[in-house]
User: Fold these one by one.
Assistant:
Number 1:
Amino acid sequence: MSETLNSAGLDTRYDVSGEGPAVILIHGVGSSRQSWDDVVERLQGFRALRYDLRGHGESGKPAGPYTLDDFVADLAALLDHVGIAKGHVVGFSLGGLIAQGFALAHPDRVEKLALVSTVSGRTEEERERVKARLEMVQGGIPGAHFRKSMDRWFTPAYQAANPDLIDRLEAANQRNDPKAYAAAYRVLAMSDLADRLPEITAETLVMTGEDDLGSNPRMARLMHDRIPNSQLNILSGLRHSILNEAPDTVAAALREFL
């Protein structure tokens, strides 16, 4: 059942399901808590908390600007409300950046940490590419943005086999509030916690697709090298959107780690 927390004037929509140790699942930019559905179905034995980030899904959509600290504070308020003092924190893409920030700000509240298809330590070339995408979305949400991103997100075989799903994802992307989407995308594009990764104390899993261009294996290895107690899992043949394309693989890796 979905519920809503109102904290500091922001509505945060969330779901809690299952029984067992708490696992908090943080979605990526332009997505919603439903992006975890296929993984949660396969992740038995946990109490799973999914929520819509500010600016996304059924949560409030202030125009921005947003900061990484805003997203971290939103999560802390939600955990207080739900009554989770400490849990496993799993973040995908922007969610993985938020998870890094949360683990640094609230180390006592993180049991284990999983950084899935996320970013850290961008090179100058990578920073320029993401800034170009930010400039594109700041003018609204052009329909071409989603289609131009397909080859970064999904393998060609998956796209060919799932045209209806691709259409649904495109429609969901178009329903995003343009100002909120741009505000969240700016946090993804402009934030980098690479220099602070050695401060993370939680046991950590770093996982990404072998062919993910935006959250690439070089970044994953950097996170693994800098986070003291970490494991690295590079998923063969996959690109960015592994929650959609490979939920069995993601859930199995999380079950084993958690």
Number 2:
Amino acid sequence: MRRFAPQLFAQLFCFCLLLFPVTYSRAQYPIKPARRPIIQNGDLEYREVKTAIDPQYQRLAEENLRSDFRKLQVLNIDLLKRVFRRSPETSEKDNQKGIGSTLGDIKKVANRLRSNLAVPKIDDTEHYDMTLAPGVLLLDKTITSFVENPLFQERRVVDPELAIRAGKNITQVVHLSDFLRKLMKEN
């Protein structure tokens, strides 16, 4: 009898497993939601599109924009400190590495802001011929001009001139930070 107990137990267990899905099926197919009709007109196909933006998604997008604005300003202040207030504890090599890293972060945040904001993309092919300190001061001036733009200070301000100025500023921030970073790598 002991020989058959494990085999019998395995057969009963498998039989119960086979019955398990059958007990929940209740011999009905699940009801699928009806598809919205597709209106076809010649070669064109129209589908109903949800135009309302999810409030939670909109709130997250606004929080990310605010966070990027703050981060751009904090990085700008950090860059100014690294260039003009060199601490005696850090070596020149570490300071230059930190400046290059901060410039890369500024470029990354500025690109993200440029893509997420509704400002026109301006092709700014200005070539810069300056050293690090004047370039950082120009970058600071450009970032300050961008952040203090009335387009971002007041809600629902729609002014094409302000939008163009913001587009020029953020494009200049991207190009300047890239130029200064390349300048740091050359030195």
